Amino acid sequence: MPKQKRYAIVLAAGQGTRMKSMRHKVLHSIGGKPMIEHVIDHLNTVGIDRIIVVVGSLSEQVMEQLGDRVEYVFQHEQLGTAHAVMQAKYLLADEQGTTFVVAGDAPLIQPETLQMMVTQHEREKASVTVLTATLENPFGYGRMIRNAAGDVDRIVEQKDGTAEELAISEVNSGTYCFDNQLLFHVLSQIDNKNAQGEYYLPDCVSVLKNQGHKVIAFETKDPEEIYGVNDRLQLTTAQKIMQRWILQYHMRNGVTIMDPENTYIDADVVIGPDTMIYPGTHLHGKTIIGESCILGPNIQLTDMIIGYECHVFQTVATSSKIGPETSVGPFAYIRPNSDVGSHVKIGNFVEIKNSQIGDYTKVSHLGYVGDATVGQHTNIGCGAITVNYDGINKHRTIIGDRAFVGSNVNLIAPVKVEDGAYVVAGSTITDDVPQNALAIARERQIIKPEYAEKLRKKFQSEKESKK
């Protein structure tokens, strides 16, 4: 028997005025990426053949974010959720299969929940399955009304419910699985005779029930999953929920987090077992951390790849690689497009930018290595810098293997220091240094005996003459 096709309609047409933002509500981030990205990712995990996003206000922002990964339909007037879904009719009405309807501002519903929900829906051949939760405070949610046998009868919205109905604690999450053809058949039968004057998607439940179709509910085990976001306060709450889940996931998979209240990890971060994370650690984007690392305190890593057994502390690093058994920090700055090798030491107040640092090389303190290729087993001394910018163009510095660059050296790019070369401290190097050569480029020291006292008297006299 061929696998039943699955579709999804994501509702993202609302203005989101309570966010008080020029950015579309679903594009506000939790867990390191826009809310709607979580929704799309979770749907893709379940296995969706086509995803249709309903857009309206600020549609260009949503379309720029999602690109051609989804299809789009427009809801030009905000006439309710049923009206929004109807906009996808010309794309899906003739298709057979299961259709999810989900909100773009409900990023916490987990793929495991969606999978269990759709499995039950298809196994029981239901016309619609409603994702529900039982809440201590159900205010604002539609209530699930069941009959005497415990079967789903209808959904009543907060503004339309009686006191008895509003006392019910099982609520509608706003996420559904529909038989696709029945969905578009029943949408045309929905009216707007309610307190809001809108076409409610939940009304499909009672219409299908009255027509003899099977209506069921799937209750999530974790009520926090259905939490939606309408304003900044709810955005912060959703962020805290997701952050707690992320940290728990990593701790269950062998990561030690010393202070979860002061550790921040995005949803797409990967961390190897036996890594220890100290407070003040921020891991963003698609950062990948190897096993048995020590991270923090006080670091910010964004889109980084970190090898095993690295120690990174009091450091900011972005869009770069750090090899195994390398130490970085304190107060180091790794800028984009850098590739730091294994067994390397990047020390205090060192900045690396768009550079490759070979294995076993040391840049221990107070240095800048920008637009450079540095070989293996090389030492770059305190205060040494690659002078890569002439005011118009950036130029590259190449330093070979087993080279020594002394303290307070300026390497004026483009320049090459070849294998085994030795650059004496305090030198300003403008020409290439051959293999195994010694380079010294500084003024000869001059000593003037007893002149220091004369100079002090001169300065004192000039100071008094200005009074």
UniProtKB/TrEMBL annotation:
Its cofactor is Mg(2+). InterPro entries: Bifunctional_GlmU (IPR005882), GlmU-like (IPR050065), GlmU_C_LbH (IPR038009), Hexapep (IPR001451), NTP_transferase_dom (IPR005835), Nucleotide-diphossugar_trans (IPR029044), Trimer_LpxA-like_sf (IPR011004). It is an enzyme of class 2 (transferase). Pathway: Bacterial outer membrane biogenesis; LPS lipid A biosynthesis; Nucleotide-sugar biosynthesis; UDP-N-acetyl-alpha-D-glucosamine biosynthesis; N-acetyl-alpha-D-glucosamine 1-phosphate from alpha-D-glucosamine 6-phosphate (route II): step 2/2; Nucleotide-sugar biosynthesis; UDP-N-acetyl-alpha-D-glucosamine biosynthesis; UDP-N-acetyl-alpha-D-glucosamine from N-acetyl-alpha-D-glucosamine 1-phosphate: step 1/1. The active site is at 365 (proton acceptor). Residues 233-253 are annotated as: Linker. It is found in: Cytoplasm. Transmembrane segments: none annotated. Binds 1 Mg(2+) ion per subunit. It catalyses: N-acetyl-alpha-D-glucosamine 1-phosphate + UTP + H(+) = UDP-N-acetyl-alpha-D-glucosamine + diphosphate; alpha-D-glucosamine 1-phosphate + acetyl-CoA = N-acetyl-alpha-D-glucosamine 1-phosphate + CoA + H(+). Its main location: cytoplasm. Coiled coil: none annotated. GO terms for molecular function: glucosamine-1-phosphate N-acetyltransferase activity; UDP-N-acetylglucosamine diphosphorylase activity. Residues 254-467 are annotated as: N-acetyltransferase. Acetyl-CoA binds at residues 388-389, 407, 425, 442. Catalyzes the last two sequential reactions in the de novo biosynthetic pathway for UDP-N-acetylglucosamine (UDP-GlcNAc). The C-terminal domain catalyzes the transfer of acetyl group from acetyl coenzyme A to glucosamine-1-phosphate (GlcN-1-P) to produce N-acetylglucosamine-1-phosphate (GlcNAc-1-P), which is converted into UDP-GlcNAc by the transfer of uridine 5-monophosphate (from uridine 5-triphosphate), a reaction catalyzed by the N-terminal domain. Homotrimer. This is Bifunctional protein GlmU. It comes from Fodinisporobacter ferrooxydans.
